[in-house]
Specification:
heterotrimer; A mainly alpha (494); B mainly alpha (71); C mainly alpha (207); B: 71 residues; mainly alpha; 45% helix; 0% strand; elongated; C: 207 residues; Cytochrome Bc1 Complex, Chain D, domain 2; 2 domains
């Protein structure tokens, strides 16, 4: 109890807003340094691991004999390890890192009890590691997005509880007069994730529901991980960084709120469109389709808002590593969401269901949207945590071009392949093996895209490691990204 | 059976819409949505003020001085 | 301005709504479906699968077959499922009630397997196919599963369980390839996948 009261005391403002804020922004960043850096480090580790597994899986799809002798390297396992490392390893760690930093900044309160977060980080990553090793050992559950064996999940829960509670406490003790829309998204994400995760664990693993109810739970969960965990974090970051870096407020705050509520209402119904035509009640599917189509509202609203904020400032976007990535991510968000709505319509779904088209769609969402926004956020956050400049513009450019061209190639190639696969599969006169053969060129294009993306990830890792290791040069006491107005060279002295 | 799907879908759509409309009305009445545009400025501080770009490629910050507002 | 409560309530109800609608409503309405008792033959459908096949189901999960194969037949109008011979009626919720884990799947890199036991009833085919899909299906991108088999030196008589492989896939002279128990279980599971009964809610399509 005493620590709670100390906590309360320590975040009660005595300084008036004007004087306090500037000093505090820096203090806030400083206070988040260690936990956020740890989460970033873990995220990077899983990003590289996940990319390697992705590449192996991708090659196996056109050269099935590649590494075919080893059981733990069989396609079904490699692909699953890839999914889980990038979702629970990379994306969740990155999302938590960004969310913590944003939350502390937006609440204008220093991060207290960072130790809790470090413990959480350790638990989370040990959980992910145990889960992945478990899958390789053959304990995977083969429930999509929930493959971790039951012995890994308690660790994740514990870690999650610590982070989530921390986040809510921080919000409770906020110093800011306003809650910015990013905070709404973050709070929602931190509240929604444990709910969907525990429902899924209970109804699929602990006390499995009967028959195809499992499929409903499964897709309610799997789609909501995207929609109610990653999407809110990604949008929170976009809503912060776009106006922040440009130095002008978001086009319409009203629209951002509308976007928030419509997303909250519609997204969580949309998941069942993965079961169109399947052995579940038709009305659920209809409801899912309606919700998927209604998702157009939050998406368009968000797109207008981001676009109108950026319009006229493209030069600034181009000059900022953060914004290059974040704006790319925001554009992918619009595209991937509209595509998702269209895929829930029966006419298109007929051709895309059960094909690589869906895989391309998923990657546009998780990579083109979420991962790009996380990269962008890191470009903003890390210099402020480390008080250092990024070491090399060139590496940033390499990272940007490989990541963006890689995902475009991935998406275009696999979407075409998926459509061909879907149309030919629906034509019973074409033998199945011929359908398989016709998709192979596109599967190869995916491996090429994977290699390009891997190069980008290596460049990014080198950047980060270099930045951490390099000594802080004396001129860099105030990095350019970060210079306070007085220290700016061009300012007329007053 | 087709008509049944559409009927149900329609009802679901109505429910969702009305819930949304109701929540919105409630929020407006509570005054939750007033002062909105001011909230959008809450991300700027003295350290990183409105009107100034706060991120550049390393070493190239100088080239964007034009975008910095003189105060 | 304190809009914390509004945000929290909204966040809560938004998810509660879909959780109630998608999960709980269905759990209540058909979460306790029972097998169908056919009065004419005095049999229950669907039938439970035997222990070996049940173990094969576990192997199916371990090896991640579900990422390339679905187990659901959609009714005509949704793709060519029945035309491709993947089943002669659509699969319905009741078909799955005895499975402790449902492998509906979402990807058809390979064909649907809901009725593969009827379509490919020969165990030899499956053993060869799992050992290396190129034997039975040249050009397939299904991975080989050689680790489900044991390559061993022939001592005395060759085993009668040894695979009968075409020359280009055969082991070197003096060796033979025999299935492990996991391969046996997986094949038993494949053969157990069938939909050769009628349910009142899903009559067989008239030809």
């Amino acid at each position: 109890m005493s620590s709670v009261s100390q906590f309360v005391a320590s975040v009660n403002p005595t300084a008036s807003a004007d004087v306090g804020v500037r000093a505090r922004l820096r203090e806030i960043d400083e206070s988040t340094r260690l936990p956020v850096l740890l989460f970033v480090g873990a995220a990077l580790f899983w990003l590289l691991g996940g990319t390697f597994f992705a590449l192996i899986a991708s090659i196996k799809l056109h050269h099935p004999d590649f590494l075919g002798e080893t059981e733990w390297l069989t396609f079904g396992i490699v692909r699953t390890v890839h999914l889980n490392t990038v979702i629970y390893g990379w994306a969740s760690n990155a999302g938590i890192a960004v969310a913590l930093w944003l939350m502390a900044r937006l609440c204008r309160t220093k991060l207290h009890h960072g130790g809790i977060l470090m413990v959480a980080m350790v638990f989370w990553n040990v959980g992910v590691l145990a889960g992945c090793l478990g899958i390789m050992a053959g304990d995977g559950l083969s429930i999509e997005w929930l493959e971790f064996p039951p012995y890994a999940t308690p660790l994740l829960f514990l870690a999650y509880a610590l982070t989530g509670v921390w986040c809510i406490i921080t919000f409770r003790f906020r110093q800011s007069e306003h809650t910015y829309v990013s905070q709404w998204f973050l709070l929602a994400a931190f509240f929604w994730f444990p709910w969907i995760y525990s429902v899924a664990q209970i109804m699929l693993v602990i006390e499995p529901a009967r028959g195809t109810i499992q499929a409903l739970v499964n897709w309610w969960f799997a789609h909501n991980v995207l929609g109610l965990w990653f999407t809110p974090i990604g949008l929170a970051a976009a809503y912060y960084f776009i106006p922040k870096v440009l130095g002008k407020p978001i086009h319409s705050y009203y629209l951002s709120i509308l976007g928030f509520w419509s997303l909250a209402l519609f997204y969580n119904w949309a998941g069942v469109h993965h079961l169109i035509g399947g052995p579940v009640p038709a009305w659920v599917i209809s409801a899912g389709t309606v919700a998927s189509v209604m998702m157009v509202i939050p998406v368009i609203v968000t797109a207008i808002n981001h676009h109108m904020t950026v319009v006229g400032s493209f030069a600034q976007v181009w000059r900022s590593p953060t914004l290059r990535f974040v704006v790319f991510g925001a554009m992918s968000y619009t595209l991937v969401s509209l595509q998702g709505s269209s895929m829930s319509l029966r006419t298109l779904n007929l051709h895309t269901h059960f094909t690589h088209y869906t895989v391309a769609h998923a990657h546009l969402g998780m990579y083109g949207f979420f991962t790009m926004i996380m990269f962008g956020s890191f470009y903003y956050i890390l210099p402020r945590l480390l008080q250092k400049e990024w070491p090399s513009s060139m590496l940033i450019s390499v990272h940007f071009w490989t990541a963006s061209l890689g995902i475009i190639l991935y998406f275009v190639g696999l979407s075409i392949g998926g459509l061909i696969q879907g149309m030919q599969m629906n034509n019973p006169d074409i033998p199945f093996l011929e359908v398989v053969a016709n998709t192979i060129p596109y599967l190869v294009s995916r491996s090429v895209a994977g290699i390009i993306i891997l190069v980008g990830h290596l460049a990014f890792t080198v950047s980060v490691v270099w930045m951490i290791l390099k000594p802080r040069s004396p001129q860099e006491t105030s990095p350019t990204l970060f210079r306070s107005p007085e220290a700016m060279p061009l300012r007329p002295s007053t | 059976m087709e008509w049944l799907f559409y009927l149900i879908a329609f009802i679901v759509a109505l429910c969702i819409t009305f819930t949304g409309a109701w929540a919105l009305r409630w929020a407006v009445r509570q005054g939750q949505l007033s002062n909105l545009e001011e909230q959008s400025r809450s991300i700027f501080t003295e350290e990183e003020p409105e009107g100034r770009q706060s991120d550049f490629f390393p070493g190239r910050g100088g080239s964007s001085r034009r975008s910095r507002r003189q105060r | 301005m304190n809009n914390g409560p509004l945000i929290f309530l909204g966040i809560f109800f938004a998810l509660a709504f879909s959780w109630g609608g998608i999960i709980m409503t269905n759990h209540i309405t058909y979460g306790s479906l029972e097998p169908y008792f056919d009065e004419a033959t005095e049999e229950m459908f669907p039938k439970p699968i035997d222990g070996l096949a049940e173990r094969g189901r576990r192997v199916y999960a371990e090896l991640g077959c579900v990422y390339c194969h679905t187990q659901q037949v959609r009714r005509p109008g949704y793709g060519a499922d029945t035309d491709r011979g993947w089943g002669n009626r659509q699969s319905v919720a009741r078909d799955y009630i005895l499975q402790d884990r449902v492998f509906l799947g979402t990807m058809r890199t390979g064909p649907d397997l809901m009725t593969v036991g009827q379509r490919l009833p020969s165990p030899e085919w499956h053993y060869n196919h799992f050992y290396n899909p190129q034997i039975t299906s040249p050009g397939s991108i299904m991975p080989p599963y050689p680790f489900l088999f044991e390559k061993r030196r022939i001592v005395g008589e060759p085993s009668e369980r040894a695979l009968n492989l075409p020359p280009e896939f055969a082991p070197p002279e003096g060796y033979e390839i025999v299935p492990t128990p996991r391969a046996d279980a997986l094949v038993a599971y494949m053969l157990s996948l069938r939909m050769d009964y009628d349910l009142p809610e899903a009559p067989t399509a008239e030809q």
